Amino acid sequence: MASKTANLYARIEPDVKNQAESILNALGIPVSNAINMFYKQIILQRGLPFEVKLPTSKPVDMSVLSEEELNAEIEKGYVDILNGRTKPAGTVFADIYGDYKV
User: Fold this and answer.
1) Which of 10, 20, 28, 59 is deepest in the core (most CB within 10 A)?
2) Taking the complete model, does pTM exceed 0.70, yes or no?
3) 3-state SS of the chain: helix, strand, coil percent to 5?
C-alpha cells in the first residue's frame, strides 16, 4: 500500500521562509498545503505555474545614484504624471486587495 504522505526537505533563506509563512498564516493556509498546491500546479501546468525569466529592466537602486541620476529619475516620474501614466495609490491598492478603502 502506498504511503499517504511523503517528507520534503528543502533549504530556504530564513527571511524568505518567514515572510512566506507570515502570508500563508494570514491566509489560513498551512505551509504543507501550500507546497502541495504548488506541486499540483506543476503537474497541471507541466512546468512551473509562473513565468521564469529575467526582467526586461531592473529596479533602480536609489542609494547608488548620483545627484544628477536621481534628478533624472524624478524627472521621468514627473513626465509620467503629466502624461497620465500614473494611478492614485488608493486605486492601486484596490486593484491588489479588492476591498481596500482609501
Assistant:
1) 20
2) no
3) 55, 0, 45
